[in-house]
Structures are given as C-alpha cells and as structure tokens.
Specification:
The structure is a homodimer.
Chain A lengths: L7 E3 L2 E3 L5 E6 L4 E8 L3 H20 L2 H17 L1 H12 L3 H24 L6 E3 L13 E7 L3 E4 L13 H9 L3 E4 L5 H17 L7 E4 L5 H8 L5 E5 L2 H13 L6 E4 L5 E4 L1 H20 L11 E5 L2 H15 L9 H15 L5 E6 L6 E7 H6 L11 E7 L2 H10 L3 E7 L8 H9 L2 E6 L38 E7 L20 E3 L2 E3 L8
Parallel strand pairs in A: 5-20, 7-8, 7-10, 8-9, 10-11, 12-13, 12-17, 13-16, 15-16, 17-18
Antiparallel strand pairs in A: 1-2, 1-9, 3-4, 5-6, 6-19, 14-15, 20-21
Protein name (chains A, B): Aldehyde dehydrogenase (NADP(+))
GO molecular function (chains A, B): oxidoreductase activity, acting on the aldehyde or oxo group of donors, NAD or NADP as acceptor
Organism (chains A, B): Aureicoccus marinus
C-alpha cells in the first residue's frame, strides 16, 4: 500500500537515514512486495536508544493508570487501521485473512489485558513490614518494597506471529505495563506490517502524552542491528521469540556485557504428546483427526506444534497410525510464510529422515507444503539425540515404545519443552499420574486430553519451559506474570509516607492487595504503625 | 574441638576419600587451627550431585509442610550444639562471641521464617483461570499454574558470614523451602564451622524422613570444586555471596553450559550515603558518631559497609568531617577474619589512595586493623571510575561536591549498589525527593536517616541491587521472595482435580491466597466451574 514508507520510527520522529534497503516477500504470489524498507543505520540506532534512556525516568514515574491509557490507545489506534494491517499482514505472510483477524484480535486483547493489569496496579504484590521501635536488642525498621522498571527493553519480533509476538505483541505490551520504554527490532519478513503497527503505537504515545522515546521501531535484515541493540549499555533487558541459535547467541552476548542483562528468549519446542492405550483403543480415530489438524494447523508454523508423539506398541497404536496417516494425507496445506522457512523446513525434514532408525511413514505433497510423518522405535530414539531436532512445519515423529517403562525413559530423555500433552480415557488409569509426573519435569505446560496448539492468554498460562524451550525456565511472554520480567525490587527503609510511591503509602491509595507484616490485605496502615 | 572430622557430608554418609588437606586459621592467635579438612575429590563431587538429583523428585513431591518440619528441625539441631558452633565460629573467624551469637540467632530465625512460609504454602501465588466451555469461537480451557522446584541447587558459603550466608544460610534455607536439594560448597575460611552446621542439617534430614541426598556439604580450597559443581549438568541453579570476580566468573560459566542455569550472586557494594546540609548543620556530630560506628562495625567486613559518603562542600561538611575523624581515630578495631582478607584490604586501601585526586584524611593504626578515611572532589570522582573500587574493611571515601547538581551527577555516575542512604533533617527539604529519585535508580534499598549496616530479615527487605551489586537485580537472598528464585512455573491445562497439586485443587485444601479469574481469593472453586 502506498502509505508504507519503509522508515524507522525513532521516538516521535520518522527517520530514513540508512542507505541499505530490502523488500519483503509475498509467498502466495512468489515475488517480492512493493514495500522497500530502509535498514536502520548506526546513528539511528544510537538515537533510538538514547531517547529511550532519556524517556525512562518520566515513563517510570508517570503512574500505571497513564500507562494503561497508553496501552488501550494502542489497541484503539490499531483497530482504526484493521483493514490496512490485515492486508499487509496477508501480503507479507501468505497467511489467510481469518488467521490475520484472529491474531489481531488476540493482540488487541493482550494490550487491553495488560492495560487492565496496569490500571489495577496488580503488578507484583507490594510488601510492607512495619516498624517496631521497641524491639530488643534493636528497633525494627519500617521496610516497604515494590517493583521498579529496569529501563529500556529491546524486543525482537517473531517470524511466525507478525502481530501477537511482534511489534505490539506480548513482550512490548508487558514492558510498557511495567514502565519500560521499548525498542522493537521489527522482523524483516513482515517489516511493512511492523511499520503499520509501529505508526499506531506512535500515534497512541503522542495522543496520551507519553515521553518522546518511549517507543522506537528499527528495521534490519541481518544480525547486526539486533547485536548492536543487545550490546548497548543503555539497554537493560531483551525479549526474543525465535530460533534456538538466535536466542542462545543473544543470551551469551548479554552475559558478556560489562553490565550483564537478562534475555528472555522463547526458542521453540517439539511438544511431546503421550497417548495412553485406553485413548487409542476407545477414541483412536477422534484423536487422529484432532492431531492431524494440530500438526498441520497454520502450516505447522507454531512453536506449540506437536512434533513428537509417544505411545506403547500394540493394536491400538496400529489403528491410530492408520487413521492419522489417512487424515494427514487428506490435508492440503498452504505455502509457508517465506521461502526461507520452507527451505529450513525441507532441510530439517531431510535431516530428521536421515537419523538412524527414523522411518518415513508419510510424505504427502497434496498441498503447497509437504506434510511428513515419521516414526522411530523407542530404543533408537533413546540412542539418537538428533531425533529431537525441531522441524518447524507440518511434520511429526511418532516414537513407538516397547513398554510403559521405555516410554517413561523416553520422556526422561527429552530436552526441555514448552508443552507436554497426555491423552487418555479415564483419570483413574494407573499410569496417568506417573506419566504426568515425568512429563511435568520436562515442560512448562501440561495439557490433558487436548492439543498443544492454541495458547490461551491468561494469568495461569505459562508459555515457556526448561531450556532449550526458553533461556530461563522461570519466565514466559504470555499472561500477567510476563510483566515481572521487566521489574526489579526496590526497598524503602524508614521512608516518610509522603515520599513513598503510591503503592506503598499508608493509605493504600491504589487499593492494592499488599503483603503487610506477613498477611495479605487491602487495608490501610495506621499512620504511626 | 575433637569432634570435627574434616570430612565431606554426602547425603547421609560421611566421606573422606580426598587426599589433599587444608587447615583453617585462627586470626586472633595468628596460627592455624587444629582442624584438618579433606578436600572433596571428583568421585565425591559426582556422588553428591547424583544423590541430589535422585532426591529431587521425592523432595519436590513431599509437600511443603514436611519441608517446613525439616527446616525447623535444622534450627533445633543447631540450637542443641550452640556452644560448639559459637566456639568453632570464633576460633575460625576471630569475630567476638556476641557477634557469633547474634548471627546464629539470625540464622535460626531465617530457618524458622522459611519454615513458616513453606508451612503456610505462601510461595508464589497460585494462578487459576477457570474454563468457559461456551466461549466463542472456541472453548476456554481450565488453566492452573504453580511453582515447581528447579532441582539441585549449589550454594557457595560467604567468607564474612560463617552462619547467616553460609551452610544453613538464606540461600540454603530458601532452596529447601522451594523443594530443591542443596549442595553447599563450604567456605574454606570456616570449614569446621561449616561441618558443625552440616552435621546438624544431616541429623535434621534423617530425623524428619528427608530423602538421602537432599543435602551435601563439600569442602575445597581452590576454584576447582565450585567450577565442577557449577558446570555439572544435574545442577540447576547457583546461589553465591562473595567477590565480584567470583560471582562474575560463575555467571559466565553458567551461561556457557549446554543447559544454561541461573546464578544468583550478591557481589558487594560501596553503599553510598548522601548527607544533606540540613542534617550536617543540625546533627553533624550525631551522624559522625553513627557513621564512624557503621564504617568500623565488624571491622568493616560487611557488604553493606558505607564505603562512600557524598555531601556538598561548606562549613557544615567541614564540621562533620572533623567530628567523623575524631570518632574514627578513637575507634579500636579487631583483626580481620583471615590474613587473606587483611591483605586484600591493604592492597585495595593502597589502590584507592593512589587514585588521582584521592586524599588520605585518616590512617589510624589504633587497633589491629587500620582505619582509613579518604576524600576526593566531586569532579575528580566523576573522572576516575576506579574511585568506586570496593575496599572491603573499615574504610570510607568522602566525595566533596561543589553543588547539589554535581552531587546528582556523582550519583548518576555510580555503579549499581546494594543500598543508598539519605541523611536529612526534614522530609520537606527541597532536594530530598530529587536525591531519592536519582539514588533509587542505582540501588536495591533506600535508607532514610539510618546506616546501611544491618539487614532486617523480612518480606519487604531487598538485599540485592543493579549490577555489579548482584548478577541479576531482580533477585536477592534475604526475605520471603528469595524462595521464588528456585522455582519455575508449571501450567496445568484441563487437568482433572484429583491429579492437580494441592495448591491448585478446587477445594483449596491448603487455604492459600490464589489469583482466580483475575481476583485474589481464598475461596474454593465450585467443582464444575
């Protein structure tokens, strides 16, 4: 569309000083788009970071109600340009309009949820321990603790979620809710979509009186931009969704800085699914349909794609396999988001097929992207670490185990995962608790009788998992707790009430739940407590 | 004492397979103690880690009430051998009996606080989002999230706190509360004190039916033991209190592992103190007494020692300086914990004295350890990064600023700190809020009209700070939140009620505060919610 300028958004300013350009690609048409994007140059990078750093104090101090308004206005401004966003999104990703609309709604929902959280002040829970001047041998001081923003955060957009995990995605929204300025490194595969969203954020920032520099959006194709941002001394944390190689490199880079900073990287997963015999016996066909759909959903381009299925050998498994093959071979897939992703998919498919013991059960070229189903014996899987390679696309590997014991060994042998699913008939089955316990040690989310694709956005969702699913198993980018990643605690000792942040004042003016002398309460604290 | 064996505690077993030995040192007598300590060999290290790994599942699943009993029994068992602990502590550290008793009481208090926290189940706050099967376009699943232990944790004892930050200190107690087995690397300067405490932990573990391997205590002088533990693939996190070089090295080592793990290192600080003119004018003498005492407390061997004082030049400051000099020169110090610490102290004192612009105001050799007070002009301080060197011992540097503006620049120029203190007369002073804001960006705890030494153990205490005070500003080793360091979230999606951990069951059998559909409540959830 004509109003894509291919520029950097640097605070409130649009900038185009770089002299290197790239085009995005339309995978449905098989040709590049009309969107010519300038790469950010060094001066622009420096300017964005310095502005963010300068904006930090004002943004941190303005109170969470104003930040909530900013987040809501971003959602409103994005909604105004829905048609444009969806059009550019579809052009640059080849994903269907339904998916674009769904992802847009999710993204708006996320922004509004974080706004509500900021507005309610429910960010961490303030801790207060009141003084006891008569305590022996020495007086007990008054101590009050609350989270304060870390400072400028860099967010890396994800290739497979142009909206929900990109420019105005969960990392950006949660960092704003925490009070941190954000510099987004737009994903080069959907740079124009990113620009459209970035403009909406910019309009929202200006309308709601945010400080200049609270948001910048920089474009670049190679690793250089991301490295410069991660290494910049004014940057205080990084959020990343993408490949293992990328996340790992950023994490190591960040730990070598003069001042190390946290990198929260979500790096993908093969999402094991355990089928207990009862389920295959009673509803094998149903689960084959469900899983064929989950494996091929969105052309398999989800980090929650079920790339690994485990079951004990037997008639039940044979029936399920047959049914799964039928369903998968009847599925017609669309193209992948970008030829690069298709190329990686084919490379990794081939790599996995070549792992000793792996047998190709299905290689279907019904649609534009081939669908593949492989299988391997449990004992071979245990011997071949490379059988755990993630094949990002519509592919899955079935591990056939000799026994329940071997199945548990296979689970114990797995690398860290975002999710693990268990499919069964009755909650009273003898093996169920055991499988849940073993699987629970390897994953961030345990799914009962469902598919891993589909990440509900809510407080109780954990979207993360033991390494290599995430760089730090303790954090995820989805849900209310994602805000805590961007905060550090600050304790106030014997601080006069007037000088405390509102969250910690005696009167509890924000009406927060607080932990006061070991008890959770909304009550105010008497002035001379 | 005769019952120090100089052995490793490996699970329930006492082991002495190493063939290298070292003695601890009595700094008061100036000679080595009778305690000959064996260093752990490779086989013993491996055994301890494997046992811890094996114990992980049972310890995680046993329920927090039983872990609470374990923690309380550790305190009880330590109390039984109070006399022995205090005697060996004083021998190995040269610290007075009063300090030993005080630190022991603090340590017992910490253990009992973490026990109470575990018993109440108040560890993280469980999140529950109930299902909505009628939601369109798709049903909303039931999601419930709770913290699960990371697995074996390695704790490095601190040289300057043989009890409160060592074998049964805050890192160990909080990891037990979280459900993680602990392997302590005993600090070599007080290895026999460590053994005495380790025996008490072992007795408590056996009495309360803990799994073998829930605790091990390994001894070693060099870096080798700590490196092997940090790099072992079964180790899932590290707690450390000590030097910057040590903490940094462990952090980088941990980030290069095949599976990176978090290292929570608290690495010291120079704890800036800002004196506003009003305070120096009205109560200069009082504050000089307070600070002379704080600088020399415990021969300055605290990470909260006030190593930096800032004030604007003038008559008030001159009077304060004079008074501080008088008080400091009248203070007679004891010996340091170990000749190595004294040697480092003297080296760093000399290094700081040689920084351009630094002037030695006092070098007092009244006691066994020299007391030193230096001063520097604000403009020189701003030019010399090395003026921020931590001198671990009874020493402080006074920065004389030309103006309030320069003082703020000096604050902005500071590295991350554990604490920052502000001394003033009235909360209505014009500069106070500004100083608090600037100082608040650099520190983990802001102290009003007090001294930084003395760390109250409570939920609202944050003992940590921006790098280099800690490797991760978001966490500290003191207070209830220290437990969260050792947990990762696990979400359960559509899990039958019986199969959920107690914290997440509908009936709320542990009577926990929970975040249910966005509201904090103790209420049970109706069965078909």
């Amino acid at each position: 569309m004509s109003n894509i300028k291919g520029i950097q958004q640097i605070g409130f300013k649009q900038s185009q000083e770089g002299t290197t350009y790239f085009h995005t690609y339309n995978p449905v048409e098989g040709s590049q788009t009309a969107y010519r994007i300038a790469e950010a140059n060094e001066k622009e990078i420096e300017e964005a970071v310095q502005l963010a750093s300068k904006a930090s104090a004002e943004f941190a101090n303005m109170g969470s109600a104003k930040r909530a308004q900013f987040l809501e206005t971003i959602a409103d401004e994005m909604q105004v340009v829905t048609d444009q966003i969806v059009q550019v999104y579809c052009e640059e990703s080849g994903l269907p309009e339904g998916r674009a609309n769904g992802e847009l709604n999710r993204t708006l929902g996320q922004l509004r949820k974080y706004a509500a959280q900021a507005r309610s002040g429910r960010i961490g829970i303030p801790r207060i321990d009141t003084a006891d001047v008569n305590r022996q041998p020495q007086a007990k001081p008054d101590l009050r603790k609350v989270g304060v923003p870390l400072g400028p955060v860099v967010v890396f957009g994800a290739s497979n979620f142009p909206l929900a995990y990109s420019t105005a995605g969960g990392d950006t929204a949660s960092a704003f809710a925490a009070g941190c300025p954000v510099i987004v490194k737009g994903h080069p595969l959907h740079a124009a979509t990113g620009e459209t969203v970035a403009s909406a954020i910019d309009r929202a920032a200006q309308k709601t009186g945010m400080p200049d520099g609270v948001f910048s959006h920089l474009q670049g194709q190679g690793h250089d931009l991301g490295q410069k941002l991660t290494q910049h001394e004014q940057v205080k944390a990084v959020g990343f969704t993408g490949s293992h190689a990328g996340g790992r490199a950023l994490m190591e880079m960040a730990s070598k800085r003069a001042e190390p900073i946290p990198v929260f990287a979500e790096m993908g997963s093969i999402n094991p699914v355990v089928f207990l015999p009862s389920a295959l016996h009673n509803r094998g066909q149903y689960w084959a349909e469900q899983y064929a759909a989950s494996i091929t959903l969105g052309v398999g381009q989800f980090c929650t794609n079920p790339g690994l299925m485990l079951a004990v050998k037997g008639e039940e498994l044979d029936g399920f396999k047959k049914s799964l093959l039928q369903n998968l071979s009847a599925t017609s897939t669309a193209c992948m988001i970008h030829p690069k992703l298709a190329e990686n998919y084919n490379k990794n498919r081939q790599f996995l097929s070549d792992v000793p013991g792996v047998e190709v059960l299905l290689y279907s070229v019904e649609g534009e992207t081939p669908v593949q189903l492989n299988c391997i014996q449990g004992e071979d899987f245990l011997r071949q670490r490379s059988a755990q390679t993630e094949v990002f696309g519509p592919s899955s590997l079935l591990v056939e185990c000799q026994s329940q014991e071997e199945l548990l060994s296979v689970i114990d042998h797995l690398e860290g995962q975002l999710t693990g699913s268990i499919i069964y008939e009755s909650k009273d089955e003898s093996d169920l608790a055991l499988v849940q316990e073993h699987l629970g040690r390897r994953v961030g989310r345990l799914i009962h009788n469902g598919v891993p694709t589909g990440v509900e956005v809510c407080d109780a969702m954990h979207h993360g998992g033991p390494y290599p699913a995430s760089t730090d198993a303790r954090f995820g980018a989805v849900g209310g707790d994602a805000v805590d990643r961007w905060l550090r605690p600050l304790s106030y000792q014997n601080c006069p009430n007037d000088l405390l942040p509102a969250a910690l004042q005696n009167e509890n003016p924000l009406n927060l739940l607080r932990l006061v002398d070991g008890e959770y309460t909304h009550n105010a604290i008497p002035p001379n407590a």
